[in-house]
Design a protein that fits this description.
Helicase, Ruva Protein, domain 3, two-stranded antiparallel sheet, alpha/beta, disordered N terminus, 332 residues, 5-stranded parallel beta sheet, globular
Length: 332
Amino acid sequence: MSEAANAAPGDIVADADAAVRSLAEVRAEIGKLVFGQDRVVELTLASILAGGHCLLIGAPGLAKTRLVETTARALGLDWGRVQFTPDLMPGDILGSEILEETQNGRAFRFVRGPIFTRLLMADEINRASPRTQSALLQAMQERHVTIAGARHDLPAPFHVLATQNPIEQEGTYPLPEAQLDRFLLKIDVDYPDLETERRILVETTGLGDATVRPVLDAERLTALQTLVRRMPVPETVLEAIIRLVRSARPEQSDHPEVRKRVEWGPSPRAGQALMLAARARALLRGRLAPSLDDVEALAEPALGHRMALAYDPTGQGGSLSGLIADLASRAA
């Protein structure tokens, strides 16, 4: 076992059993309003349990906003939504100081922006200017904002679920690689299958929706995030993560396709993301420790936005997700 396993207290089993029951209830509540997106829901919850942020990529109308709102309700968190546009300024998100009259004369007062919530949906984040993107992503990393030299801490826990539309790219500002790295997972939201789409049409065009009850609260969620970091990691899983991350770097890989086609590979933060997300996924599935299956399932969400392929003029080289899947199966 790794050091995390040796450091795990003896009561972790009891804590994990209680957590598994609570998380099953959370998923059941989310399932009342979000249909047929089990993988997306699982990855979103894994990202939150791991203490990170996630990037949801999908076409309009695939219930991304509904997912964020329902997840916030089931977790017992307050939430907010910001629609990103090219004219959005950093102060529109972080907040700003205003000058107002008081009994003692004029004074500045800080007015908090929408970022001061526990779950923030950054809708179409790539439509904002790089300056606004950087302000948000810096706050995501540091968990506080600084306005006029004064520090203002964000609520804890604090998570950002950002969305991108892969179809329309006109008038957008693609996130730089260094800023994409701040997202723990990248989650692709696909179209529903036939039966799910039938259910959507029947159950969402009536007189009302089902009611989602809060299963957790901020304090309980923080305890679950601590539990995830206490979970043991088998040495085989640790070694698989290391092999996977290092094999995805052209400078260190012995995979011919990586050396030929990958322009830049994942940083150590990718390994950190995999370690945490694998623990969280294991807990969501009722297990005390992650397995090699967790590493394979999370390889593309954890690495897909942390590496890039070189330009291929022939277009015959295959996809990045396919290459990552091959690397993950070899590493496991």
